[in-house]
Amino acid sequence: MSHMVYGCLMAVDRDHVLRSAAALLTRKSTATMDEVAKAAGISRATLHRHFAGRDALVLALEALCIAECETALDAARLDDGPAHDAVRRLVREIEPAAGLLAFLYTESQLFEGDAQNKGWTRIDDRVAALFRRGQAAGEFRIDLTPAWLTEALYGLLASGAWAVSEGRVAGKDFTHMIAELLLGGAVRREES
Amino acid sequence: MSHMVYGCLMAVDRDHVLRSAAALLTRKSTATMDEVAKAAGISRATLHRHFAGRDALVLALEALCIAECETALDAARLDDGPAHDAVRRLVREIEPAAGLLAFLYTESQLFEGDAQNKGWTRIDDRVAALFRRGQAAGEFRIDLTPAWLTEALYGLLASGAWAVSEGRVAGKDFTHMIAELLLGGAVRREES
DNA sequence: ACCATATGAGACATCTTTGTCTCAGCGCGG
DNA sequence: CCGCGCTGAGACAAAGATGTCTCATATGGT
Predict the structure, then answer these.
(1) Torsion angle of alpha carbons A136, A142, A148, A153, nearest 10°?
(2) The CA-based dihedral angle spanning residues B107, A173, B186, A104, taken in that order and rounded to the nearest 10 degrees
(3) What are the chain A neighbours of B28 within 8 Å (beta carbons)?
């Protein structure tokens, strides 16, 4: 039956296409629909059957990224324990999405009236709430606003993903470098 | 005489065009040559007379950005005094170029065999040397590599410029937020 | 006043990407 | 074995950006 085929084949294809596109666009943000199709191992016609156009593809990538980020937010259990540990868990969990996040971070400035805006602000709010919780608990300094710490986290994730893909830093250090810089900064400290 | 006209008018025009283009492309990185021309208040034909094409324009913007960064590096006197003060001076001096830096940071990944590559690596080296000096002096922690600290600085400058242009953080806090996060991190400290 | 030069406006061809369409092939279930 | 549906390949027009060209105009120096 058609809907069974749709459920079995098309779904996995769609997901595979999305992940291929994410991997490609992470490296080459100006990749053509044709390049995206080739990267996924399908023809441009089939790509067009799944995603009406480039906008629809980017929109689907946004939805995927939002979903993965929310999964990471859930897995990081932001409300549990010290906020700085929650930040470390968050960075660790969100690492797989960092590349896609970096792509969308620069791409979606075009779509000001973004259809996925609600999804992004929901994520922003959860992250900002974590920093706010840390400030309220006296863990985090209060001269850096939660909004800025959230932006900085995105920026560091993007820089980190890019630096790793360029071979400037080792992939295994990704989590440590981002979390430690965001939390502790560059200055050496006496206390443990 | 023609060379006098060239020296008086064309030079200032070229600089004005470059700065207009920088301001526009900072906000809309996919702006058309026509939009760039209109933003500079000139026609597309004149823009083409000054810059052979879009590549030439971006190349000139790179040269401008490199020059401004090096001026900032000089003004920050990276070799004087404590490294953390030098970092603060650097962030303050380089702030005007942050927007353009953010644009080129994402744009120039296309030009892998970049003609300006030498200029960028020269800047990278000077910044990395500053972090290395701070590490050698015991000011900075050594588990974060100079290369990563350099990348992180770029990422924070880009995030900061973008966040300011989006109105998410106040422009007057730009220097403080970037320098303090980079140096001290989010975690509150007991010592002074 | 005259002339050189830069400019603005616009036409024009070209290139790239995109979106749509058709058609033939193939797998898979009935 | 047959037919349905998905796919790949390719043709096609449309749209957008780019680069080049011409020509009329204005500006500025001589």
Answers:
(1) -70
(2) 30
(3) 110
Verify that B71 and B146 share a domain, yes or no.
Answer: yes
Contact (CB<8Å) A159/B162 = no
For the cut 60, the answer to whether the pLDDT of residue B4 exceeds it is no
| Probe site for chain A from B133, B144, B176 (most A CB atoms < 10 A) | B144
Q: Which residue has the tokens 């295994």?
A: A172
Average pLDDT by stretches of 10, chain A with 192 residues: 41 85 93 96 95 94 96 98 98 97 82 80 97 97 96 96 92 96 92 54
The protein residue nearest C8 (Cα–C1') is B43
A56 located within any domain = no
Q: Which of residues 82-111 of A touch B (CB under 8 A)?
A: 84, 87, 106, 109-110
Residues B100 and B173 in one domain: yes
A132 and A111 assigned to the same domain: yes
pLDDT in tens, B20-71: 999 999 989 999 999 999 999 999 999 999 999 999 999 999 999 999 999 9
Residue in A29, A155, A185 closest to B158 by CB: A155
Based on the domain organization, do B122 and B173 belong to the same domain? yes
What does the pLDDT read at residue A8? 40
Q: Is the dihedral of CA B90, B92, B97, B100 positive or negative?
A: positive
Does residue A8 reach within 7 angstroms of strand C, measured from its CB? no
Distance CA B115, CA B109 (A): 12
pLDDT above 80 (res B93): yes
Q: Which residue from B145, B151, B183 is facing A185, i.e. has the nearest CB?
A: B183
Q: The tokens of A123 are what? A: 């994520």
**B12 lies in the same domain as B68:** no
* Domain match, A190 and A114 both: yes
Q: CATH no. for residue B90? A: 1.10.357.10
Q: A43 and A67 share a domain?
A: no
Please write the tens of the pLDDT for every residue from B111-160: 566 778 999 999 999 999 999 999 999 999 999 999 999 999 999 999 99
Q: Measured between CA atoms, how close is B9 to chain A, in angstroms?
A: 35
Its domain, for residue B23, covers 1-51
Touching B: A residues 146-175, CB under 8 Å: 147-149, 151-152, 154-156, 158-160, 162-163, 168-169, 173
Place of tokens 């399908």: A42
Q: How many CA atoms does the CB half-sphere of B65 hold within 13 Å?
A: 28
**Domain total in chain B:** 2
